[in-house]
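Suppose you are handed a protein chain with no further information: no name, no annotation, nothing but its sequence. What can you learn? This example shows the usual starting point.
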Amino acid sequence: MWIMTVHSKNNITMFEFETEKEAKAAFERTQGCKFLTQVIYFNDDYLVKSTI
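A reasonable first move is to predict its three-dimensional structure. Written in structure tokens, the prediction is:
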């Protein structure tokens, strides 16, 4: 999951994206002070090492 946080004088707005591609496209289109963050959950399958 990707989160884009946009700061303005009066508020903070957050947008959630499923893919890196769509997050980066929106990030490029958005003006202002912004941050793009990847959220990683420790229970994601690709982070768990198989013990079998």
